[in-house]
Every structure is written in C-alpha cells, then in structure tokens.
Design goal:
By secondary structure, the protein is α+β, with helices and mostly antiparallel strands. It has 23 helices and nine strands. 49% of the residues lie in helices and 9% in strands. Helix 3 (102-105) links the parallel strand 6 (88-99) and strand 7. Helix 5 (176-205) crosses helix 15 (375-393), helix 6 runs antiparallel to helix 7 and helix 9 packs antiparallel against helix 12 (311-323). It is globular and about 65 Å long. Bound molecules: iron/sulfur cluster.
C-alpha cells in the first residue's frame, strides 16, 4: 500500500531535519535571501559531496585534509582549512565560487583579507584561456575545478557551520562536574595569561595606562584593536585626566583623525552640527601639539562592521568610560559581590546625548536610542580587562569573575561548542552560560582545534581527556590538572577552579 499524501513527505522532512540537526546546525536568518548557485555549491562542498581528493589546475594532486569552518562574515568562505597540495600540507582559507572569474569580479584579488587563501575552488571556467587566481600580495593560489555537478537537488534548509570533533565522544562520557572542572581550568589559564600581559604593560607604563589601553583595545573589537591601542598610547590616561570632558573627547577624536575643518564647519548639517562644532573648537586649540602627521595617521576599518560598532562610536565610548574613571578604578581595586549587578548599573549609567542617537560623527539621528556600550561589550570589558587586571592585584577576584554572565553567542564560540559537544544542545547551553565557561571553551578551541590540520585524527585532546578524568578521580581535590592549571593563584582561587564550592559550579546543577 502506498503511503498517504503528504504523510510520507512529512515523515521524510522530519528525518531530514534530524539528520542535519545531528551535524550541529545553523538556521539561516529568517528572510535572508537564498543565493542558489554559490550557496548551493558551498553547501555541497562543505558537506563533502565532491569528495576530498582532486586534481589541481596544474595537474597537481590536491587533498582536503580539513574543510575548516564556514565563515559567516566578510572574507574567504572557509577558514582554518588544511589542504595538501602536491604533497605539501598548507593551512589557510578556501574560497568557493561558481566561476573562476568571480575571484576578480568580487575584488578578492585586491583585498588583503584574501591573502591567506590556499585554494580557490570553482564550478566553471571559460572554455578558452586559463584564468589564474592571484592575491593582492601577488601570490598564486592553487585552483580546483569541481567535477560536473547537478543543480537538481536544492541545498539543505540547515547548513552546518562546523562538524563535531573526535573529542565529542569522550566528552559525552564525562559527567557535568568533570567537564565543568576542565572548562574552569582552561578559563583560569586564559585569565592568567591576560593578567600577565596587563601586569607587564602596567610595569612599563603604569597600571592605569595599562587598564586604559586594555579597555581601548576591547572597544576596538577585532578590526580596530590596534588602532585603538595606539590611540590610547597617543592620548595617555594621565594627560586626559587633566582635561575637562569636552576637551578629552576632542583630543581623542582629533588624534584618531576624525576631525577636520569641514566637519567642524558644519558640513554635516542637521543636529550633528553643534556637537561637531564644539569638538572642532576644542581640537583646534590643541591640534598643533597633538595631530599626527599624515604618514602616522591611524588606519581605521569600517568595512564589515555593524553601524553600531563604527570606529567613531568606539572612540566615543572610550571617552565616555573616562567620565567614569573613578568607578572603574574602584571596580578594579575592590571586590564586588555580584558582577552582574555591576553590568546592570553600568548599562544604566553609560549614556551620551550625541552617541545615544548617532552611529557616527555627522550621521543622521537614529529612530530609537542605541546603547553606546551594550551588555555583551560590558561583560567583555569586565571579563577581558578589568578582572584580569584586578586578579593581578588580588587572586580573590577570581570569584567575581566566576559570577560574570556569558555573552551572546558569536561565531567562534558557536564553532567551539559544536565541535566539542556536537548536537548535545543541553550541554552547549549548560557550558556557555557563564563568561568563564565561554573563555574555557575558546581556550580549548584555540589550543587544539585551531592548531589541528588532520581533521581531528592527530589531535591529542580526546586521549588527554582520559587523563583529565583520572586526575579528577584522584585523592586530592586540588591535585589534578585543574589545580595545576590554576597554580599561580591562591588556594582560594584553586578551590574555585577544581572544587565544588564556586558560585558557577553550583549553577551547573541548577541548569542541568
Ligand atoms: S581538533 Fe581536537 S579538540 Fe578540536 S574538535 Fe577535533 S578532537 Fe576535538
């Protein structure tokens, strides 16, 4: 008897969803437009449909050792891949296009972000004449023309961003406490490294300048981190402390290279004009002393960043943090009972008449107010800068750090959780709830996944987990790896890392 319509289709649909869910899923944003050609080829490529072994355009053997991660942002399509080309293992990015000519059509050949591409994969090329793939740095990129493919099947509704790793199985056999202890220890190791860096900077330039530069870097995100660091060095915190608020802003924006006579002269018009005029009037009086030469101008990147994170707003946020410097210093020096309370208070306090309503200097006002520093960024400032600095002064601050909530998921975190926990959504949630758990996951991801070029085969982490468990079961609560990873901290800190008394540890039971 044939199945009833549409019962069989529904059954198949459920089956399909289960299969894709098992690979760890990223659901496409509602309303995002499906680009059939390119996306389909990429989905098939990443799903391994074309296989791993190819012949390159020069006749050389090309083996995909590791497909890498699917890049959801600007830049090459797949990052952290490993490809053996003519017997030589190369790590880098892979670009997948429908046509070899898309490389130049899309401007990749003039874009330094594509300098790390080790393989250009495409499904079509001109019938006559060879088209080479070259980078902005004049590197020749190996090419693979995909075997004939059929466009009959549509792509899956869910596209995997990363595949579960070999360590997923041993991790799934560990109980929550064991995994928690592993993450706590990795987080503590990461925190200690950040603390050491801030300590070294503090010994060279003074603790407050180190804190200031650390905050500036964190506000710069990935793209503008260095420019923000240099800006903090060109505008030292002790010099800014001697200025009033408007002069501080003018100095920062001027040294950043964002002020000009045109901007100050009202060229932007609208409600931005009075604010820009004020900035220019103050900058004009100090310009001779502080304006860097054209050759030393900072290179800001606004491409690929959300309007909310425009470099102008980041500098505005840094100026605003200076208004609260005393509160920041107190936070650095004195324990807090509840880190999240601090975040909430700062969210309420950090406000600016211009930046609450504008994306950049001279932009039109936004329809609704936009926070100059959001909750996630505040947690990052605390978790990446303030607590690492504070813990260098007092190891007891580890407990403040443990209570800090996690940030909303991001690309790296998602990949790390998918690789380690696979489809176990409950564990992915349980172990990304707090900031330290997220940091622990990122540490493991960076230490193992990003170092691996064997598609997990040669990664030592899965085998090492058995030893971790053995150490956990050992006689001394502080005698295992967890304790060793936390050695530089005090016994109180170690108890938090390896024992069961930390606030975050008790939270595992609640969530689980
Ligand atoms: S590379 Fe190692 S740590 Fe990463 S997913 Fe594979 S086995 Fe796990």
């Amino acid at each position: 008897m044939s199945p009833r319509y549409p019962a069989a289709a529904e059954r198949y649909e459920q089956f399909r969803e289960r299969v894709w869910a098992a690979a760890g899923i990223i659901v496409r944003a509602p309303g995002s437009r499906f680009l059939p050609d390119e996306l389909e080829i990429q989905a098939r490529w990443f799903g391994g449909e074309y296989g791993r072994c190819f012949q390159g355009s020069e006749g050389e053997p090309v083996e995909i050792v590791q497909f890498g991660h699917w890049n959801r942002g600007a830049g090459p399509d797949f990052t952290e891949a490993a490809v053996r080309i003519d017997g030589v293992l190369r790590r880098g990015d892979i670009e997948v296009d429908p046509d070899v000519r898309d490389w130049e059509r899309h401007g990749h050949g003039a874009n330094p972000r594509f300098n790390g591409v080790v393989l250009h994969v495409f499904a079509d090329q001109p019938a006559l004449g060879r088209v080479f793939t070259r980078t902005e740095a004049h590197g020749n990129v190996a090419q693979v023309l995909l075997p004939q493919y059929s466009g009959l099947q549509g792509p899956p509704d869910f596209l995997p961003e990363a595949f579960p790793g070999r360590c997923r199985a041993p991790l799934s056999r560990m109980d929550d406490e064991e995994v928690a202890s592993l993450l706590v220890s990795a987080a503590q190791f990461r925190l200690r490294r950040k603390s050491e860096r801030l300590g070294a900077m503090g010994r060279a330039t003074g603790p407050e300048q180190a804190l200031f530069q650390g905050l500036a870097e964190a506000l710069g995100y990935r793209h503008n981190k260095t420019s923000m660091a240099v800006l903090a060095q060109r505008c030292p915190v002790d010099e800014l402390a001697g200025l009033d608020g408007p002069a501080r802003e003018a100095r920062l924006f001027g040294c950043a290279g964002f002020l000009s006579p045109e901007i100050g002269g009202g060229a932007c018009g609208g409600d931005a004009a009075p604010y820009l005029r004020r900035l220019w009037d103050r900058w004009w009086t100090m310009r001779d002393r502080h304006e860097p030469s054209r050759l030393r101008a900072l290179a800001w990147r606004g491409d690929g960043t959300r309007p909310l994170n425009h470099p102008h707003r980041r500098v505005g946020a840094l100026a605003l943090l200076l208004e609260k410097w005393e509160v920041l210093r107190e936070l650095w020096e004195k324990p807090v009972n509840n880190s999240e309370k601090v975040v909430n208070k700062w969210l309420a306090d950090l406000s600016h008449p211009y930046w609450d309503r504008h994306y950049s200097l001279g932009s039109k006002p936004t329809p609704k107010p936009v926070r100059i520093v959001g909750r996630d960024r505040l947690r990052d400032l605390l978790g990446n800068v303030v607590f690492p600095g504070a813990i260098g002064i007092s190891p007891d601050r580890w407990r403040d750090y443990l209570g800090l909530g996690g940030v909303a998921s991001n690309q790296k975190l998602r990949r790390a959780a998918l690789r380690l926990f696979g489809p176990d959504e409950q564990r992915r949630k349980l172990f990304t709830r707090y900031y330290h758990q997220q940091q622990g996951l990122l540490q493991i991801f960076e230490d193992f996944c990003l170092e691996d070029a064997s598609d997990c085969r040669d990664c030592p982490f899965p085998e090492q987990l058995a030893q971790w468990r053995g150490a956990e079961a050992g006689p001394s609560p502080n005698g295992g790896q967890a304790a060793r990873a936390g050695a530089p901290f005090s016994e109180a800190g170690l108890a938090g890392a390896g024992g069961t008394a930390s606030p975050a540890d008790s939270a595992y039971a609640r969530v689980g």
